[in-house]
Specification:
947 residues, globular, mainly beta, 47 strands, 8% helix, single chain, 22-stranded antiparallel beta barrel
Length: 947
C-alpha cells in the first residue's frame, strides 16, 4: 500500500479532530509495509487506520483531559458540530416546555441540530438503553466517561449501517479493551466566583496479559460530584433589565400584589380600582408601587416594578414583579457513580471472547422558584387573606389613601397573587440507574479468511423522580392560607409565625414519588467481513454482512399512592402511564468496499429493518473518495435515514398545560395571533394546551448528502472542507403553535372553543407534519512545526450553518431561512462556531491554548416590540457573540505521576445578554444552550500509576 503525502500528513496531524493522533498512529517507512486494518464508527468493514476517507472526528482521552472536560455533556457543549438545543441540565432547570417534560436529570447528544432523538449514541459500537423517564434519547450522564479511551464522532447519516436515529450522526464512546496495572486519578474544577465546583475521582485495576496469559480482566470505578450553582450566584443572571427589553412577567411577589376578581367573588378591590390619575381600571396593585410608596425594591430580595409597557398590561401599572427566572439553579447538583468491567479471553490464535458490564447511578436535584399563589379555582374566596389578618388594615389604608375609601369593600377578604417564599423553592430529585451486560465473540474464520463479531447484550435505564421541598397538599395549603396564620404581606426582616410555619410543614408533600420508568433493550447482533476474492484495479473487493435483532421495552408509572391526595402544582404525569409496551426489530445489512482504482474507492451499504407496528424500511448509502493527485482527496456520500416514533409519542395519554404568556390572541379574529390591547379582536388569551401521543404516527424519513475535499499541499499543513445537507420529512413533533396559527384554516379543529366561541384549549398532540431542511459546511485545518526543541500545532475546526428551514405541512413551501434567528425550545441555529487551538510540546511539558467561539443571533422579540406598542430605549435585537479561552499545562516528568493544570474561561467572560421570554426557556438574561455560566475556573488533574 502506497503511503503518499496526503495520508502521511493526515496521520501526523490528526486530521478531522482536535487531537494530535500521531502518537497513536504508526506510519510505516516502506511503501509495502503491512498496515493494521481496524473497524471505525460508520463502517462494518475493517480499513487502515490512516486512510481518512470517512468524515470522522476523534477525541483522545489525553485531549479531553487537557481541556478539563469531565462529562459527555461538557464535550458536546464544546463540539462544533453539536446542535444548540435544550440538551443540557441547565436548559432543564425550571418549569420546562412540553418537549422537555420528563427530562429530569437528562443530558442528550444532538449533532447538526437534528435533536437528541435523531443522534445515535453507541458505547463500544453497540446501542445502550434510552433514559427511563422519557425513552427517547440516551442520557449522557450514564456514560462511564472516566474510563474512555477515545470518542469517535461520525459526521454523516448512518441508518444504512445502524438503523433508526442515526440522522444527525453517530457518537461512539469507546472504553479501554484491556488494562494491566493499577491507577488512581483525582480531578477538581473550582470556580473563581464560587459555586458550581466539579470533582471526580477514579480507580482503575487490571490483571492478565492477553498475549502471554490468554486473559485480561480490568475494572474501573468512578465517582463524580457537581456542586450547586444558584441563579443568584451570578450577577448576569438578572431579568430586571427593562430598558433592554427584559423584565419578569409575574405579579406574584414575596410581598403580595392585590388582585381583582369578578363581581360575583366579593373581595377588597372588587373588579378593580379606577386610577385617579386617568380613570383607567387597575386590576393588580402592590401598595409598595403606589405613588408615595416604599418602592417594589423594598419588598424583598429580587423584587422590582412590573413593567406594564413591556408586557402590554397598562392595568398593572402599580404591580410589582419578582425575578423568578434567577431563582432556578444554573448548575444542578449531581452525584454519579459508575463502574465498568471487562474480562477478555484468548480462546485461540484466531478467536477471542469477552464479557463486559457497565453500570451507573446518577442523582440529580433541580430546584426553582417557590409556588405562586393566585386567586382562582384552587385558591378561592375561602383562602384569601381575611379581615382578621395582621396586615389587613395596612393594605386597606394604603389603598384608601390613593384610591379613596369609596371604591373599597372593607371587611371582604383580599384576593392576592403571592410568591410563597415560606413554602420554599420547588425541588425535584431524580435518581437514574443504568446497566448494560454484553457478551461477545470475535475472531477469524480461517477457511474463508473473514472476520466475525457476534454479541448479545441487555441494557436498562431505570429512573424515578421524587418531590422534595416546595410542594404541599392542596387541601392543607388552602386551609392554612384561609386561616390567616400565613401572612403574604411581610417586609424584609419580618418572619412568619411559628404556628404558620408549623401548619405549612404539616402540609408538606416532601418525599412523594412523582413517577418512575424503565427503558430496556435486548440485542443480538452479528457481523461478518472479508474479501470476496474479486480484484479491481485498486485492490480486492471487501464486503460485510450482518444482522441486528432487538427488543425494545418501556414502562412508565405515575402516581402510585393508594390515596391520590392532590398536591398543588406537582407535575404528575398520570395520563402517560404505560404498562410495559414493547416492539421487536429485525434487521439485515450489507456493505461493499470497491477499490475501483488506486485513486478511487466506492462504498455501497444498505439496511433492511422491520418493526412491529410499522412494517419495513430500506435505507441505502453510497459514498466515495477520490485522490486525483497526491495532495488531494475528494469525498462524498448520499444516504437515506429514518427515525421511528418513541413509545411516548405513540402511547402517551392527554395532558393539559396552561399557556402562561401574554402574547397570544385568537387567530380567527387576529391575523398572526399577536396579542395587543389596542387592536380589536387581539385581546390576550391563555388557553389550555393539550399534549399527548398518537398511535398512528409514521416514522420520520430523511435524506443526507455530503461532499468534501481534503488537501495536504505540504507535509506540515492540511485542511478539509465538507458540505452537507439533511432534509427530513414527516417530522414527529407536538403540533407547533406557529403552524397552527399560520395555517389556521387547515387546523381550525385544533382550536377548541366553548359554547360562546371563546378558545379554551389548543390540541397540540404529536403529529407527522412537514419537515426541515438544514445545510452547512464544516472545516478543519492543521499547521505543525518545530520551535525551541519542541513541536507546535495550530488547529482550526469550525461549523457553518448556511440553511435551516421548516415547513408545517408537506404541501407548503419552506419557511424563510431561520439561521441566526431565535428559536424556542429546540435547536438554536447560530451561523458559525469554531475552536482554535494552539498546542506546544517540549520534553515532559505540554501546553494548550484554545479559543471557543459561538456566533451571535437575533433575539426573541419582547411582547411590546412584537405587537408594536412599545420599544424600550436600550432594546438591541442582536445577541452578541460569545468567545472564551481555555489554557492547560501537562507535566509527565515524574515516575508514574502525571498532572494537568488548567484555566477555563481565562478572561472570565460572562454569557451575552438575551431578552428571551423566561416562561418558555431557562436562563435569566442568558442562554444556556450557548454559554457556560460558571465563569473563570481552575482545574487540576492528578494521575498516579501504582504498577
Amino acid at each position: 500500500m502506497k503511503l503518499n503525502r496526503l495520508i502521511q500528513s493526515i496521520a501526523l496531524a490528526g486530521l478531522g479532530s482536535s487531537v494530535v493522533m500521531a502518537q497513536d498512529t504508526a506510519v510505516p517507512d516502506a511503501e509495502d509495509a503491512k498496515v493494521e486494518r481496524i473497524r471505525v464508527t460508520g463502517s462494518s468493514i475493517k480499513r487502515t487506520n490512516i486512510e481518512g476517507s470517512l468524515p470522522l472526528t476523534v477525541f483522545s482521552k489525553a485531549e479531553i483531559d487537557a481541556q478539563g472536560i469531565t462529562s459527555a455533556e461538557q464535550l458536546l457543549m464544546q463540539l462544533n458540530i453539536a446542535g444548540n438545543s435544550s440538551d443540557n441540565l441547565a436548559s432543564n432547570g425550571g418549569i420546562v416546555s412540553e418537549e422537555q417534560r420528563g427530562n429530569n436529570g437528562v443530558s442528550g447528544a444532538n449533532l447538526r441540530g437534528q435533536g437528541a432523538d435523531a443522534t445515535l449514541v453507541l458505547l463500544n459500537g453497540r446501542r445502550v438503553a434510552t433514559h427511563g423517564l422519557k425513552g427517547r434519547a440516551v442520557d449522557l450522564n450514564s456514560i462511564p466517561f472516566a474510563a474512555l479511551e477515545r470518542v469517535e464522532v461520525l459526521r454523516d447519516g448512518a441508518s444504512a449501517m445502524y438503523g433508526t436515529d442515526a440522522i444527525g450522526g453517530v457518537i461512539n464512546f469507546i472504553t479501554k479493551k484491556d488494562y494491566t496495572g493499577a491507577e488512581v486519578s483525582a480531578f477538581a474544577d473550582t470556580t473563581e466566583a464560587g459555586g458550581g465546583n466539579i470533582y471526580r475521582t477514579n480507580l482503575l485495576l487490571g490483571a492478565g496479559d492477553i498475549n502471554k496469559d490468554g486473559w485480561n480482566v480490568f475494572g474501573t470505578l468512578s465517582y463524580k460530584k457537581n456542586e450547586t450553582l444558584e441563579g443568584t450566584d451570578r450577577a448576569f443572571s438578572n431579568t430586571f433589565q427593562p430598558e433592554r427589553g427584559l423584565s419578569p412577567d409575574t405579579r406574584g411577589t414575596p410581598f403580595a400584589t392585590v388582585f381583582n376578581r369578578p363581581a360575583a367573588e366579593r373581595n377588597l378591590i372588587g373588579t378593580g380600582l379606577r386610577d385617579p390619575r386617568d380613570g383607567l381600571n387597575m386590576i393588580a396593585i402592590n401598595i409598595l408601587d403606589l405613588p408615595g410608596g416604599l418602592g417594589c425594591e423594598n419588598g424583598g430580595p429580587n423584587m422590582g416594578p412590573y413593567d406594564e409597557r413591556l408586557w402590554s398590561s397598562i392595568s398593572s401599572r402599580y404591580a410589582c414583579a419578582w425575578d423568578y427566572p434567577a431563582a432556578a439553579r444554573i448548575q444542578q447538583p449531581m452525584d454519579s457513580l459508575d463502574f465498568i468491567s471487562r474480562a477478555s479471553f484468548k480462546l485461540s490464535d484466531e478467536h477471542m471472547a469477552y464479557f463486559e458490564f457497565v453500570g451507573s447511578k446518577v442523582d440529580v436535584s433541580k430546584a426553582f422558584e417557590p409556588n405562586q399563589i393566585s386567586p382562582g379555582a384552587v385558591f378561592n374566596r375561602s383562602t384569601w387573606y381575611p379581615v382578621t389578618g395582621a396586615s389587613y388594615n395596612l393594605i386597606y389604608t394604603a389603598l384608601a389613601n390613593y384610591f379613596g375609601t369609596s371604591q373599597l369593600n372593607y371587611g371582604e377578604p383580599i384576593a392576592y397573587r403571592w410568591r410563597c417564599m415560606a413554602c420554599g423553592p420547588r425541588q425535584i430529585d431524580t435518581e437514574t440507574k443504568s446497566y448494560r451486560i454484553n457478551a461477545a465473540f470475535e475472531g477469524i474464520i480461517s477457511a474463508f479468511d473473514w472476520d466475525y463479531a457476534v454479541g448479545l447484550s441487555r441494557a436498562s435505564s431505570t429512573s424515578n423522580s421524587i418531590l422534595a421541598s416546595g410542594y404541599h397538599y392542596t387541601d392543607a395549603l388552602q386551609q392554612v392560607l384561609g386561616s390567616g396564620l400565613i401572612n403574604p404581606f411581610l417586609f424584609p426582616g419580618q418572619r412568619q409565625s411559628d404556628a404558620g410555619m408549623a401548619a405549612l410543614q404539616a402540609a408538606s408533600a416532601d418525599g412523594v414519588r412523582l413517577y418512575d420508568g424503565e427503558s430496556l433493550m435486548t440485542q443480538l447482533d452479528a457481523t461478518f467481513t472479508g474479501g470476496l476474492g474479486f480484484e479491481l484495479p485498486g485492490g480486492e473487493i471487501q464486503a460485510a454482512i450482518g444482522t441486528d435483532l432487538r427488543r425494545e421495552e418501556f414502562k412508565f408509572n405515575g402516581d402510585q399512592r393508594a390515596q391520590m391526595r392532590p398536591i398543588f402544582n406537582a407535575p404528575f404525569d398520570n395520563a402517560n402511564v404505560l404498562d410495559k409496551v414493547s416492539r421487536d426489530i429485525k434487521a439485515v445489512f450489507v456493505e461493499f468496499y470497491l477499490p475501483v482504482l488506486d485513486s478511487l474507492d466506492v462504498s455501497l451499504a444498505g439496511r433492511y429493518d422491520r418493526y412491529d407496528g410499522f412494517g419495513s424500511t430500506t435505507n441505502p448509502k453510497v459514498s466515495f473518495n477520490y485522490r486525483p493527485i497526491e495532495e488531494v482527496m475528494i469525498r462524498g456520500a448520499f444516504s437515506t435515514g429514518f427515525k421511528v416514533p418513541s413509545f411516548n409519542q405513540l402511547f402517551n395519554g392527554n395532558t393539559e398545560s396552561q399557556y402562561t404568556g401574554l402574547d397570544l390572541a385568537d387567530p380567527a379574529t387576529c391575523p398572526g395571533a399577536v396579542a395587543s390591547e389596542t387592536i380589536p379582536g387581539c385581546a390576550s388569551i391563555r388557553p389550555v394546551e393539550i399534549f399527548g401521543g398518537k398511535p398512528d404516527l409514521k416514522p420520520e424519513e430523511s435524506e443526507q448528502k455530503s461532499f468534501g475535499v481534503v488537501v495536504a499541499p505540504f507535509d506540515n499543513f492540511n485542511f478539509s472542507v465538507d458540505w452537507w445537507e439533511i432534509e427530513r420529512t414527516d417530522t414527529i413533533r407536538s403540533a407547533p403553535r406557529d403552524v397552527l396559527i399560520n395555517n389556521y384554516d387547515v387546523f381550525q379543529a385544533n382550536w377548541i372553543r366553548d359554547s360562546n366561541g371563546q378558545i379554551v384549549a389548543i390540541d397540540r398532540r404529536f403529529i407527522n407534519s412537514g419537515g426541515t431542511l438544514t445545510r452547512g459546511i464544516e472545516i478543519d485545518a492543521n499547521l505543525t512545526g518545530d520551535f525551541a526543541d519542541g513541536k507546535w500545532r495550530l488547529n482550526l475546526n469550525g461549523s457553518y450553518i448556511d440553511t435551516f428551514k421548516t415547513k408545517g405541512l408537506e404541501t407548503l413551501p419552506y419557511s424563510p431561512n431561520l439561521v441566526g434567528e431565535y428559536v424556542r425550545y429546540f435547536n438554536l441555529p447560530i451561523k458559525w462556531k469554531h475552536t482554535l487551538n494552539l498546542s506546544y510540546t517540549r520534553g515532559d511539558w505540554s501546553h494548550s491554548l484554545t479559543q471557543i467561539y459561538r456566533d451571535g443571533y437575533k433575539d426573541e422579540l419582547p411582547v411590546s416590540v412584537r405587537n408594536g406598542s412599545y420599544t424600550p430605549s436600550g432594546w438591541n435585537p442582536n445577541v452578541s457573540s460569545y468567545t472564551t479561552y481555555n489554557y492547560s499545562m501537562t507535566y509527565s516528568g515524574f515516575d508514574n505521576l502525571n498532572f494537568t493544570f488548567g484555566i477555563k474561561n481565562l478572561f472570565d467572560q460572562d454569557p451575552p445578554f438575551t431578552a428571551h421570554q423566561n416562561d418558555f426557556a431557562a436562563g435569566a438574561a442568558w442562554e444556556p444552550r450557548i454559554a457556560d455560566p460558571r465563569g473563570r475556573a481552575y482545574t487540576l488533574l492528578l494521575e498516579y500509576k501504582f504498577m
